[in-house]
């Protein structure tokens, strides 16, 4: 391709799409105490098993500015770079990419590097990458593609349905007192990536069946005509569950394309096993919706 797409492993792009789209992925890290792994070096299955049986709750870490610098530097200088980043609201990844870009441009000022803060994660980043691919295939310039993607960010919706809130509690993102109340009342949390790119509670629903129905209903509240839109769903080591939900989504909403992937360890550390993460472009921005 005439343009090089890069991203970080918070995107959860499956290997076949990495190859088909020629994407270079900069790895985030997960730590169990003093042990650190690149997110690509541990499977989600093994990671979740270790979380459930271990006493040490893992921490995630962004790639260093040097990691981004090395990735950008190795790309043919004649190729513009468009980098699709994990939300600056949940990770230092974007800021570290900015630092790497600044350093490289000091050395090679003729480089074209565009950084997109998606204000999202996982399925939302896959959706943005798909959007970029469509425009590359239309021979649009890197500058025009980057401008288009920036304009798309306010319309990007990323919604999480959690099977369990245990990881939120253990990771300190939800207090134990609130967690205990939610479990007692059988409350399921529907989270979303906010306008600022932070992961916030969107709704609290009593019972799993009601939560799943609400998860489906939300799509229709954001989109009138899905025929020209793409839908992406990632799952926390729960492919059968994801397949079932996607079947229901397809029956109800005629999306142009549907992608499915498994969340990597970084996203799974917070969302937990069985989580579903869906993304699509809304008809309205966050501000217009409210």
From TrEMBL:
GTP-binding keyword on record: no
InterPro entries hit by this protein: DegV, DegV_C, DegV_domain_contain
Gene3D superfamilies hit by this protein: 3.30.1180.10, 3.40.50.10170
GO molecular function, a single term: lipid binding
Annotated keywords: Lipid-binding
Cross-referenced NCBIfam families: DegV
Designated name of the protein: DegV family protein
Organism for this UniProt entry: Halolactibacillus miurensis
